[in-house]
Amino acid sequence: MELSPLIAVHITAALGAVVTGPVVLWARRETGPKPKLHRAFGYAWVTLMLITAITAIFIRDFQIPNISGITPIHALIPVVFGLLILAFWFLSKGNIKGHRMTMLSLYIGACIVAGAFTLIPGRYMGNLVFGQWLGLISPNHQSSAEGTPLLIQILIDTPLWVWGLLAALLVLGISQTRNRSVGLARIVVLPLGMGAFSLYGTISAFDASPTVLGGWAAGLVLLLLVVTQMPRPAGASYNSATRQVHLPGSKVPMALIMGVFLTKYTVGASLMLDPDINANATFALTISTIYGVFTGIFAGRAIHLMRLALRPRDVTPSAHSSHLSAINA
User: Fold this and answer.
1) Which candidate, 37, 260, 241, 73, places its Cα nearest to that of 170?
2) Contact status, residue 188 vs residue 302, Cβ threshold 8 Å
3) In this structure, are residues 73 and 109 in contact, taking their beta carbons and an 8 Å threshold?
4) I want to staple 206 with a disulfide (CB 3.0 to 4.6 A). Which of 154, 187, 284, 315 is the partner?
5) The whole model's pTM is what?
């Protein structure tokens, strides 16, 4: 079975959403909730669901009842988008119960029920995951001449410098989980750095075509608009005397950094398997949009923090009283 990079991205994101979902739900349990963990994995889960839905638009399956490759499973795509919008609408209104129930319904329906159906051995994606990727069924589905499962072969062929880059990004991500105070200039360093990394990944893989850059820009703008309308990170504050922003530790940057790395790793593995895949307009548009999504989230968080320094200074009661006394005198 030929491995399609688009399907590889789709399945990777879908499996990631299946694994990440329980962590999101557990972290928001009623007894002993962990809001920072919930927020970090929540960002990751929503991003993975968006990637799964976007890539599913371009996948065709002719093995079950279909119309030009479009099957009843494709009806889940607008459902995913609709429920995500509804969940964040509930969140913006402070309706936590509605938000929780919507996300739970989406996880059960899209990740568990639909996921189990599509991964049944014998179907296209089931054979791909359990046969070609993992080598658990039908040796004929293994891709390497030595019979090594595809994922294992990809890991073996990964250059050492990639693991060094991963270690450096992990250190950077861990540094973001600690409480710290930073100047305004450092607020934009991480978004600019990861934005440049994602743009480099896009251009190096697909060149700077209008379609690719347009997809990257569209993903950036869309998520920038979404994130800037959400509440800013809890506990963040600005000290006008020191001109520094106090940042509470968060796992969200770690999740985003790993998301950018895994996207680039997936693209690199896809190009290794099929060097001509970068000429596939659908694949290029999907990946460039995903890169833009990560960049938009980084940029939106930075704008939230910069707004703290731009807010009008509050007049304290004591200062206000002194001002009135001076006038009356």
Assistant:
1) 260
2) yes
3) no
4) 284
5) 0.57
